[in-house]
Write a structure and sequence with these properties.
The chain has one domain. Helix content is about 50%, strand content about 15%. It contains seven helices and four strands; from the N terminus they run ααβββαβαααα.
Length: about 150
């Protein structure tokens, strides 16, 4: 867990300190030379690497908090799960919940619902103010309880 937190804090974007935005996502992708492609997809998104180049594809029909979750989830795969060589692909919500998928979910949830919100607002206030689903909020509260982040 310490590695994950250190890796995210090294980006210096305010992960888990403030609500990260789509602009933050695109800024980090540009800095890390990740091409972002939006198009209609059958899944929320996926990260892939081909011939040494990194890509994140996002379903163009997504909006709001759902889109941000997918964007930061896929960015987490790049940050935490990129192999040294060879091709790879990670798909959002496809297959079983592996350790890598749980880690990517944790990164995304902390990106859009920072710890400070959970310490200063009720879950109802967060849900109402930011149109975050009860399921997503419950997952985020579980992360705070289990990992203290």
């Amino acid at each position: 867990m310490r590695f994950l937190i250190d890796k995210l804090n090294s980006l210096k974007i305010g992960w888990n300190e403030r609500e990260l935005t789509e602009r933050d996502f695109h800024r980090v992708c540009k800095r890390l030379k990740i091409s972002v492609i939006e198009m209609p997809l059958r899944t929320g998104g996926f990260y892939y690497r081909v011939m040494g180049r990194d890509y994140i594809a996002i379903d163009s029909r997504l909006t709001g908090p759902r889109k941000l979750l997918v964007q930061f989830h896929e960015l987490a795969h790049f940050l935490l799960h990129t192999p040294e060589s060879g091709a790879t692909a990670n798909f959002h919500n496809v297959g079983r919940k592996t350790r890598q998928e749980r880690e990517a979910d944790l990164v995304a949830l902390c990106a859009i619902i920072p710890k400070s919100w959970l310490e200063s607002r009720t879950p109802d206030e967060i849900a109402d103010e930011h149109t975050i689903s009860a399921d997503v909020l419950r997952e985020r509260l579980d992360i705070l309880e289990k990992h203290g982040i």
